[in-house]
Amino acid sequence: MPPGGGCSCGGICAPVSRAIDPPGGWQVQELPAGSFASLLHVGPYDTLGVAYETLTRWVHAHELITAGPPREVYLSEPGTPPAELNTVIEFPVAAAR
Fold this sequence. Notes:
By secondary structure, the protein is of the alpha+beta class. It has one helix at residues 48-61; strands at 36-42, 64-66, 71-74, 86-95.
């Protein structure tokens, strides 16, 4: 639990080809389709903040707004050296009104 209480939630996403019965404490959700701004970050996880800042600036510069929570897609295998880690950051976006 985060300091001060509250809830910390996370998810693991995997494509499935059929309906599945999740184990206790897990749930199945369908991720909605939509428009996304995405960025490939190459480097250690502790520098992901710079990538988030860069993508946020790009979204605003293109007169878009974020339309939901971001997603991170981890492309590297366990044991990959930190400098070679590949992570895609995705922001769901919509036109600013």
